Amino acid sequence: MALPAAISSLKAKDGLQLGMSVARLFASAASQIKVEVMPYKVHRIEAPSNIVETNVPELMSFYKLMYKLRRMEIAADMMYKAKFIRGFCHLYDGQEAVLTGIEAAITLEDSIITSYRDHCQHITRGGSVKELMAELMGKSEGATRGLGGSMHIYNRKANFYGGNGIVGAQIPLGAGIALAHKYRGEPNVCITMYGDGAANQGQKYEALNMAGLWNLPVIFVCENNHYGMGTAEWRAAKSPNFYTRGDYIPGIKVDGMDVLAVKHAVAFAKAYALANGPIVMEMDTYRYHGHSMSDPGSTYRTRDEINAMRTERDPIERVKKLLLSNGVEAGELKRVDKDVKKEVDDAVEAAKAGTIPPDSWLWKNMYVAPLGGEMRGVLPGQYHAPDFDPEYTS
Amino acid sequence: MLASRNVRPAAGHRMAAAPGQRALLAGHPGRRVMVAAKAQKKEIMMWEALREAIDEEMERDPTVCVMGEDVGHYGGSYKCTFGLYKKYGDMRVLDTPICENGFMGMGVGAAMTGLRPIVEGMNMGFLLLAFNQISNNCGMLHYTSGGQFKVPMVIRGPGGVGRQLGAEHSQRLESYFQSIPGVQLVACSTVRNSKALLKAAIRSDNPIIFFEHVLLYNVKGEVGDKDEVACLERAEVVREGTDVSIFTYSRMRYVVMQAVNDLVKKGYNPEVIDLISLKPFDMETISKSVRKTRKVIIVEECMKTGGIGASLSAVINESLFNDLDHEVIRLSSQDVPTAYAYELEAATIVQSSQVVDAVERVCGGRVAATV
User: Fold this and answer.
1) N or C: which end of chain B has fewer CB within 10 A?
2) Which CATH number does the domain housing residue B304 bear?
């Protein structure tokens, strides 16, 4: 289905559903910029055109968002080293373009679910850096009140379904969310994100099969950063072409370091998914940090490779170059940088000053309806009454 | 009283197909006619009661849906969803491929958005494949999301030792699931409580794991009023007594009641309580009984190691020690894979004669005849 036809048919159905930036393509803005992105590799589907239209305001919004995500992840790195953040901390820097492009092509009525590398989804789904930082530090002002931690960020109101610790377990969940969209007749998709490591999980194929059987509106997004923790993709996967691994389900491979390529492809995929059923997307991306903060990230790859990525393919630098070559002054970008740094620094300070969740929160929200019984404590004779209090009022 | 009947189906009575072969259900036309006649007398079989519960709840609430293997066109391997796909369509009675991990996760995802799926495991043992989804996502999501997401789903299926089904199809998964925080475990045992409990489970906003028993589907009995909904956390007092408290659940209830027949003739007066709620335990009913009789026997089908009875025994010892005159006696299955041969299979699980022996041991000789 050609992209313009797909989009206009979708717009006719429910014009507000499409990502605003795509809608802007049809606005008669004076300064439309045409950018040629890397051609898409496709599987069982016709490739969309690789000429993407954009404009300066849109690029500025991308720049600002990606820079915010980058600074936030770097701040998380520093806070982890300073022991304000504990446990597992999986950082997303390098991959910002994937999420920014996805969000530009969908709305908050569409659903997103992802793995444990979920800090940035909180921001792109409308959460604040402060909530994210507070959650990482285990404070009660955090996105999940300090109960979830780095791997369990959720935002029900924004249709962000987490935040899942077990590799690949989110994929059947994503198919279930898409099933619910279809069950209710909603014109929405579920973006189900996973990595190249998770692409070898059996439950992914179970979900692909069911999604294909019932034409569920799910977009399987494989964020291929080429390493499953410490194992390179060529050592873990017989076939590294993750966009073809859906077999009978069409796939498209996208340059995941280019936000415009991602946005264009996801808009295409959404139109396809709503009309036909599931589609697999492979985002060719890269993470600068190791798998998590306990992994230096340099024992299984060379520093040269990491530096080459930073110089040649960094997503933020790419957008910056585009902006500078389209009349934006360096000074304006520096102002944006400064504002973002301040926002992140303030958020970190506010999170540090946050409150520790009280002991009474330990027994909240195990069950929805209070069951009337008491749970035993650590020592004999100790009892706790679990209660249902989603606002954590006491 | 259902006690003496239906402990084992009559020899000629054809059991539902062994799920191990995933064989075709012997469409026994004679039996269906018989069933229809019984329905008019208002005595139905447990599978029909469960089906009624699912049907009524699906009619009442359009967000209730069923998913599982062969639940739709095939009618359910134990007929619990027989014919429902014709009434509600394929989307609401969803035939899944054979991928327990996948469709359990799908059920959880759908439940997170507000749908109320009833996910059927054709045999509870198969749900071991879905353990990650049940434990991490179904059980813990409500808590780890800071109270944001509910998981109002019911996971149901038959478990327990059947009729020579072999080790892998005779498992008792309540042992494994009981430690998962955030889930409720419920075991039905009679026609009446199976319908009322399943309705309550479907209406509950918590994730409920609903244990049926493979040998109880053809038990006959009456159901309550159309809208009877049981309390999921309340145990059932099957027989009031004074000598000893016997705690049991699921099919072992019938084994116990068969033993009670013998015990009453010998002059004993046992109190029998069907736990119903395996997690959390109904401590109010349990402690009331223990304080009355001061002796406890637990009769369960779980293995000796790490079963529901093991947990209950620990709770009673810890909370009611001074109310006990005798250590808690626990009759459980033996820690062996369930053998195929009839006699060996019978030897792995609790028999009614063993319950009689246990009561005699705990209560001493024949008690002074009062009744």
Assistant:
1) C
2) 3.40.50.920
